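Why does residue order matter? Because the sequence determines the fold. Keep that principle in mind as you read this record.
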Amino acid sequence: MFLFQRRLYASFAPERPQDIKNILKPLGLVNLPKSTTEIKKKTFKEKKADFLDLEKNRARREELKNEFFKSSFEHIYNFRHTGGKIFHSPKHMFNKESSLYMPNIRGIRIDDNTKMSVPLFQLLSKTKPNIIKLFSSVAGKKQIDNYTTGLSSNEVNMIEINSPTSWMNRFLVKLFSGKIRKATDSKYLIAEEKLTPEIVEALYAFNDLAGYLYLVDGNAKIRWATSGPPSDEEKQKFQKFLKQLE
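Structure:
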């Protein structure tokens, strides 16, 4: 089994690990997303047709298998290479005019025990700095939690978005939602769908194992961002820019 895993890993490992990216322009979407974003769910008739379409199912299985092995091993490979630092944080905060918009990710809110489906924009504050944490793994969350140690909900509006990468991961997160609720002081969303390539590109969230943090103003614009574990310099920048948003 071990030999099989090594061969499998070797067959999907990239030729060279990706370097840590530099942020040369503001992150986000050019246009303001709709505040009433809804997820269009398939009807029972559509689901049944998809289920009975053998050719479509066969093609989808192959696509998922290749995507799973390739993306999983690449993410592990690059996470180890960069230590989870997918991009270097900008040296300066983006100004209001050039800043772009945070995607309006929709998720199930579990921190208040309502389990309601809400868009991210509904949780943004107009009066407090918005800190948005995005992660798909425990390792990624732990890394970006180091930025916000000591901060409370009285000082900032903290929103955590757990973006599961598969239906199984989503099931497990929901299963342990009670424990998560007791352990968090933040507004907590479980993303209803996997992030689209457009959103991944806009947020530079290229690795599922890493954690990402965004400072967002009251107009839903991303003013600063970082990823992975913080250096002392990055912690200082974060504290400085956080105060500038107050």
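DSSP finds eight helices and nine strands in the chain.
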